[in-house]
Fold:
Amino acid sequence: MLAGMMGDYATTAELLEQVLVYRRRMGDKMLLTGTLNNLAIATRRLGDLEHAKLLYAEVINIAKDAENIKTQAHALHGLAEIYMDIKDYTNALRLQRECISIRRQLGDIKGLAFSLNSIAISTECLGNTILAVQMESAAAKLRQELGIIIALATRVENENFVSQLRDKLGDAEFEKAYLDGQAMSLEQAVTLAITELE
Structure:
């Protein structure tokens, strides 16, 4: 995990593949899904999207069978990111919507922060820049309130995304949409995300 936090995804994947062998032998579903999820993240970062998809699909199947909806939501989020990578934003939003609904049900506030950010990106790619800024603003507010520290690679991607939104809208329109997002309660932001996706 330390290698992954430092951006060394090749080492991360190599080590997690070894861990996965032991997890499968142990038969502990919770530990197995955690390893599969982490391996899927590293594999995605290495560009092997098909393998990452299979890993997430396995997690979702195990989680559904075990009625572990928190793990299911985490895997749905990861799978949505893969669909974003291949520019299938309609399916990405479908998965994100399913994920955010589960996280809302669970009261998973940290998870909601990540979901709102992902929804912002897909929404922008489908042409709704104002909503994208509002979702990103609500996500940023939540991350700050929770003291969430994101990995360097993710932080750089996020900063670039926000810059692109500002460039597209111009300062005045961006600031208005951003302040609208900051003014929303978490429930309002989640409801807006779900409503706009229906």
The chain has eleven helices and no strands. Residues 1-67 form one domain.
